[in-house]
Amino acid sequence: MQANLATLFESNANLFGDKPALVWDKGCLSYAELDQRASAFARFLATHGVSPGDRIALLLPNQWTFAAALFGILKLGATAATLNPGLKREELEEILADLRPRGVVEKVEFDEGAWVTSKQTAAPALIVYTSGSTGRPKGAVFSHGALAFANQSWGGPVMRLSSEDVVLGVLPFSHNFGMNGALLAPLLFGASVAILERFTPDAVFDTIRRFQATVFPGVATIFRRLLSSPAFSAADLSSLRLAVSGAAPCPWELCQEWRERTGIRILRGYGMTEVPRPISYFVDDPADFPDAIGRPVPGVEIRVVDDAGRSLSCGQVGELWIKSPTAMDGYLDAREETHEVMVDEWFKTGDLACVSPEGFIRIAGRKRERILRGGYSVFPQEVEATLLSHSSVAEAAVVGIPNPDLGEEVAAFVTLKPLAKATAEELIRHCEKRLAHYKFPRSVAILAELPKGHTGKVLKSELMKKQVP
User: Fold this and answer.
1) CATH for the stretch 369-463
2) Residues contacting 332, CB < 8 A, separation 6+
3) From start to end of 306-406, where are the E strands?
């Protein structure tokens, strides 16, 4: 048994009452009203045969109903599986076949009457599915305790939220970053959430201005599109005190440009579906290093190990292992796949990293993404960083493609900044001057946009299918 996360929100509903919890273009819900609707949804589920421990799939966009449904499921003691409503039919069918939910919620309905939330529950709180880019989608199962720790970390040392904050909710709530950083953490710290159902630069600028948003969780793609928008120069961002990046790496050059043009810091960090935000920069610490992703949040342990699992010293590159209270319990009904990534509560990230004497972590590349070119190891992140150092490049992704002589060859895909001009040959020469002979890409494809998942992460599996020059 474990403490039910919903009771933490209920405490805030009693404490903050009429204070706005959720605001959006055409409405507002106070803490008390949101809690009442969550209880009414719990009653609806119960009267329609849902029991504690059942799994309920949520297929809801960024609307107030998502929060009401999520807390309602938790109040009942059932388990929520948050799914992207933009999934294609085949993707959804595959996930639902694995999840076997008691019900699928696409519309939220309510039943009036009394409701008492059990303070303890034996069921998991949440199931979040991985993207499936390396195989079939897998459901990461999280306890109530893992969610509580994650959001205490988000709202505490990472963002330092208070009841005075208004957090922009433009990231998809169905994903860990958006759900925790932009919805649950604010509500558990008494802040308000300004909900935006769909991203457009104009809508973001208007929402920040209208609701005086103070904290802006986003992904690199969002920050880049805002900087490139014709409306940026006239946008009023004066209420913001902090921007927070996640889901995919945010290039240092982008962080610099954002800060130069807005005066606002982008707080970088690291996490994945299975281990939400175990490493981050902290809002109260001004330290920022171009090639580091931050340091472990309080309560998180890290190790850098060799192929035999032996710990390495500072500065040595090996696989990053993480032990965190936020980690998943395991993959749903997949004991073998869980054991492949978890050893004695340590999660094996598959990322190659090293640690500085000060405790900051630098990612060298993906263990599985390593390109073997003529016997040499090439890590895409290093080549991508070199491409991003070119003044015309907005985004870059590097993959290995089959080569009959070398085994693999280094291939790059980039997008350019608005009005910027650069040729593939120019970008290849740029890298050749800065990288060892076996590292620089022999081909560069300039695209209108890079293929991305709904969280903004580049889908390198899609790039592998493209023809390169």
Assistant:
1) 3.30.300.30
2) 98, 99, 127, 138, 139, 140, 141
3) 318-323, 330-331, 342-343, 346-355, 361-366, 371-373, 376-378, 393-403
- Cα 155 to Cα 151, 229, 427: the distances in Å are 6, 30, 41
Strands 342-343 and 295-296: what pairing?
A: unpaired
Q: Which pTM value belongs to this model?
A: 0.81
Domain ranges of the chain: 2-355, 369-463
C-alpha 173/C-alpha 53 separation (Å) is 22
Among all chains, which residue has been given the structure tokens 């001004």? Answer: 286
Query: Any alpha helices (H) in 77-138, and if so which ranges?
Result: 89-99
d(CA 128, CA 274): 8
CA distance linking residue 96 with residue 98, whole number of Å: 5
* Whole-number pLDDT of residue 133: 40
The pLDDT of residue 452 is: 82
| Distance in angstroms (rounded) separating the CA atoms of residues 92 and 342 | 27
> Distance between CA atoms of 311 and 353, rounded to whole angstroms?
12
Phi, psi of 312 (to 5 degrees): -105, 165
d(CA 364, CA 353): 5
Q: 348: closest CA among 295, 292, 307, 294?
A: 307
Distance CA 82, CA 150 (A): 17
Residue at token pair 């009394």: 114
pLDDT tens across 355-389, in order?
999 899 998 877 667 787 876 668 788 899 899 99
Rounded distance, CA 257 to CA 181, Å?
A: 23
Sign of torsion over alpha carbons 374, 379, 384, 390: negative
CA distances from 211 to 196, 224, 313 (A): 11, 22, 48
Q: What is the pLDDT of residues 404-417, one digit of tens each?
A: 777 789 999 999 99
CA separation, residue 147 to residues 72, 204, 325 (Å): 16, 27, 9
**Structure-token pair, residue 172:** 């998809």
CATH class, domain 2-355, is: alpha beta
Q: Are 207 and 168 in contact (CB under 8 A)?
A: yes
Q: In terms of C-beta density within 10 A (0-12 exposed, 13-18 middle, 19 or more buried), how is residue 102 classed?
A: middle
Q: Burial, 428: exposed, middle or buried (Cβ in 10 Å; 0-12, 13-18, 19+)?
A: middle
Given a contact cutoff of 8 angstroms between Cβ atoms, the answer to whether 175 and 454 are in contact is yes
Written as six digits, the tokens of 286 are 């001004």
| Amino acid making up residue 292 | A
Where do the DSSP E strands lie in 183-312?
192-195, 215-218, 242-245, 266-267, 269-272, 275-280, 295-296, 301-305
Predicted confidence (pLDDT) at residue 98 exceeds the cutoff of 60? yes
For the chain, the residue count is 469
